[in-house]
# Entry
Amino acid sequence: GQHSVAFEVTAGGSWTITIKPVTEARAWDGASEMTGTGDDVVRIDPNISGLMTANVSHSGSGNFAIFAYGAGPFGADLLVNEIGNYSGEVAIGSGAFLLEITADGAWSISPS
# Structure
């Protein structure tokens, strides 16, 4: 498969890039609530089978976005892209194995 071989960084201060194996990401079983604060990467284990609906929430003032990465040919599915506080239901597609969360506050995801 294809992967990134370079990064372009534009920053006004010091920065760090850390690359880790996906297996080091926190695991979510899809059956319980998972919470966090700020940006995160969450591994779904086991992978989603069929279509799953989940309740998600965010308490913050900035961008809240969740991308789901799956085994299909389409790359990432944008599940949420909102500014500030958010509470709603999202559909996570079959084969999803990773969630990329962008948040500036506390967030939660749980099965609905």
The mean pLDDT is 91. The chain has no helices and nine strands. Strands lie at 26-28, 34-37, 40-44, 52-59, 63-69, 76-83, 86-92, 98-102, 106-111. The radius of gyration is 15 Å.
